Amino acid sequence: MTTIYQATDIFKYYPRSNFKLEVPKLQLDRGSITGVVGENGNGKTTLLNIIAGNLSQKNTSFMYFNNTPKTANDWSNVKDKIAFIPQRIPKWYGSLLQNLQLKAAIEGIPNKDIDSELDKIINFLGLTKYKHLKWSEISTGYRLRFELARVLIGK
Q1: Given 98, 104, 111, 151, which is the most exposed site by the fewest CB atoms within 10 A?
Q2: Is the pTM of this model over 0.70?
Protein backbone atom coordinates (compact mmCIF):
# COMPACT_ATOMS: atom_id res chain seq x y z
CA MET A 1 0.00 0.00 0.00
CA THR A 2 1.30 3.48 -0.89
CA THR A 3 1.76 5.89 1.99
CA ILE A 4 0.41 9.37 1.22
CA TYR A 5 1.35 11.05 4.51
CA GLN A 6 3.44 9.92 7.43
CA ALA A 7 4.41 11.92 10.50
CA THR A 8 5.83 11.42 13.97
CA ASP A 9 5.66 13.77 16.92
CA ILE A 10 3.04 16.20 15.61
CA PHE A 11 2.84 18.97 18.17
CA LYS A 12 1.07 22.31 18.12
CA TYR A 13 0.74 24.61 21.12
CA TYR A 14 -1.37 27.74 21.46
CA PRO A 15 -0.10 29.61 24.55
CA ARG A 16 -3.08 32.00 24.88
CA SER A 17 -5.53 29.14 25.33
CA ASN A 18 -2.97 26.67 26.68
CA PHE A 19 -4.15 24.19 24.02
CA LYS A 20 -1.79 21.40 22.99
CA LEU A 21 -2.22 19.02 20.10
CA GLU A 22 0.01 15.97 20.36
CA VAL A 23 -0.06 13.09 17.90
CA PRO A 24 2.82 10.63 18.38
CA LYS A 25 2.43 8.90 14.99
CA LEU A 26 0.13 9.21 11.99
CA GLN A 27 0.11 7.39 8.68
CA LEU A 28 -2.40 7.89 5.85
CA ASP A 29 -2.38 5.26 3.11
CA ARG A 30 -3.76 5.39 -0.39
CA GLY A 31 -7.16 3.73 -0.63
CA SER A 32 -7.79 3.83 3.11
CA ILE A 33 -10.33 5.94 4.95
CA THR A 34 -9.28 7.69 8.13
CA GLY A 35 -11.79 9.39 10.40
CA VAL A 36 -10.90 12.31 12.65
CA VAL A 37 -13.40 12.50 15.49
CA GLY A 38 -13.60 14.32 18.80
CA GLU A 39 -15.37 17.02 20.71
CA ASN A 40 -15.19 20.67 19.71
CA GLY A 41 -11.85 22.20 20.61
CA ASN A 42 -9.88 18.94 20.57
CA GLY A 43 -7.73 19.85 17.56
CA LYS A 44 -9.39 18.12 14.58
CA THR A 45 -9.19 21.20 12.36
CA THR A 46 -5.69 22.00 13.61
CA LEU A 47 -4.53 18.48 12.70
CA LEU A 48 -6.10 18.67 9.23
CA ASN A 49 -4.49 22.08 8.63
CA ILE A 50 -1.11 20.63 9.61
CA ILE A 51 -1.55 17.66 7.26
CA ALA A 52 -2.64 19.99 4.43
CA GLY A 53 0.51 22.07 4.96
CA ASN A 54 -1.42 25.16 6.07
CA LEU A 55 -0.03 25.18 9.62
CA SER A 56 3.58 24.73 10.60
CA GLN A 57 4.82 22.66 13.48
CA LYS A 58 8.25 22.26 15.00
CA ASN A 59 10.29 19.10 15.56
CA THR A 60 7.89 17.00 13.52
CA SER A 61 9.22 14.40 11.15
CA PHE A 62 6.89 14.10 8.14
CA MET A 63 6.73 12.87 4.56
CA TYR A 64 4.25 13.32 1.73
CA PHE A 65 4.24 10.61 -0.93
CA ASN A 66 7.50 9.20 0.55
CA ASN A 67 9.32 12.54 0.23
CA THR A 68 9.99 15.38 2.64
CA PRO A 69 9.31 18.77 1.01
CA LYS A 70 12.21 21.13 1.63
CA THR A 71 11.83 23.93 -0.91
CA ALA A 72 8.91 26.11 -2.01
CA ASN A 73 8.81 24.15 -5.26
CA ASP A 74 8.59 20.86 -3.32
CA TRP A 75 5.70 22.29 -1.29
CA SER A 76 3.97 23.46 -4.46
CA ASN A 77 4.14 19.93 -5.88
CA VAL A 78 2.74 18.46 -2.65
CA LYS A 79 -0.08 21.03 -2.44
CA ASP A 80 -1.10 20.15 -6.02
CA LYS A 81 -1.89 16.63 -4.78
CA ILE A 82 -3.90 17.66 -1.71
CA ALA A 83 -7.58 18.55 -1.89
CA PHE A 84 -8.38 20.43 1.30
CA ILE A 85 -11.66 22.20 2.01
CA PRO A 86 -11.48 24.46 5.07
CA GLN A 87 -14.11 24.46 7.80
CA ARG A 88 -15.08 28.05 7.00
CA ILE A 89 -15.44 28.70 3.29
CA PRO A 90 -14.39 32.19 2.22
CA LYS A 91 -17.11 34.18 0.45
CA TRP A 92 -16.75 34.45 -3.32
CA TYR A 93 -18.19 36.94 -5.78
CA GLY A 94 -19.83 36.43 -9.14
CA SER A 95 -21.53 33.20 -10.16
CA LEU A 96 -20.41 29.72 -9.28
CA LEU A 97 -19.56 29.12 -12.95
CA GLN A 98 -17.49 32.32 -13.23
CA ASN A 99 -15.46 31.30 -10.19
CA LEU A 100 -14.85 27.82 -11.58
CA GLN A 101 -13.81 29.30 -14.94
CA LEU A 102 -11.31 31.56 -13.18
CA LYS A 103 -9.90 28.61 -11.19
CA ALA A 104 -9.59 26.55 -14.39
CA ALA A 105 -7.68 29.38 -16.08
CA ILE A 106 -5.37 29.71 -13.07
CA GLU A 107 -4.75 25.94 -13.21
CA GLY A 108 -3.59 26.37 -16.82
CA ILE A 109 -6.45 24.55 -18.53
CA PRO A 110 -6.60 25.75 -22.16
CA ASN A 111 -9.60 28.01 -22.94
CA LYS A 112 -10.95 25.51 -25.47
CA ASP A 113 -11.10 22.77 -22.78
CA ILE A 114 -12.49 24.75 -19.83
CA ASP A 115 -16.20 24.33 -20.63
CA SER A 116 -16.01 20.55 -21.09
CA GLU A 117 -13.83 20.12 -17.96
CA LEU A 118 -16.23 22.17 -15.85
CA ASP A 119 -19.33 20.48 -17.29
CA LYS A 120 -18.01 17.10 -16.12
CA ILE A 121 -17.32 18.33 -12.60
CA ILE A 122 -20.54 20.36 -12.31
CA ASN A 123 -22.66 17.43 -13.50
CA PHE A 124 -20.86 14.95 -11.23
CA LEU A 125 -21.51 17.12 -8.17
CA GLY A 126 -25.12 17.95 -9.05
CA LEU A 127 -24.46 21.67 -9.46
CA THR A 128 -25.89 22.15 -12.96
CA LYS A 129 -29.02 24.08 -11.95
CA TYR A 130 -26.98 26.20 -9.49
CA LYS A 131 -24.03 27.16 -11.69
CA HIS A 132 -25.35 30.65 -12.47
CA LEU A 133 -26.17 31.49 -8.86
CA LYS A 134 -24.16 33.66 -6.48
CA TRP A 135 -22.86 32.94 -2.94
CA SER A 136 -25.91 34.43 -1.22
CA GLU A 137 -28.26 32.37 -3.40
CA ILE A 138 -27.10 28.88 -2.42
CA SER A 139 -27.12 26.85 0.79
CA THR A 140 -24.08 25.97 2.87
CA GLY A 141 -24.23 22.41 1.51
CA TYR A 142 -24.02 23.64 -2.07
CA ARG A 143 -21.19 26.00 -1.11
CA LEU A 144 -19.30 22.92 0.09
CA ARG A 145 -19.99 21.19 -3.22
CA PHE A 146 -18.72 24.30 -4.98
CA GLU A 147 -15.49 24.13 -2.96
CA LEU A 148 -15.15 20.46 -3.86
CA ALA A 149 -15.61 21.38 -7.54
CA ARG A 150 -12.84 23.98 -7.20
CA VAL A 151 -10.35 21.49 -5.75
CA LEU A 152 -11.20 18.92 -8.44
CA ILE A 153 -10.39 21.25 -11.34
CA GLY A 154 -7.31 19.99 -13.14
CA LYS A 155 -7.03 16.85 -10.97
Answers
A1: 111
A2: no
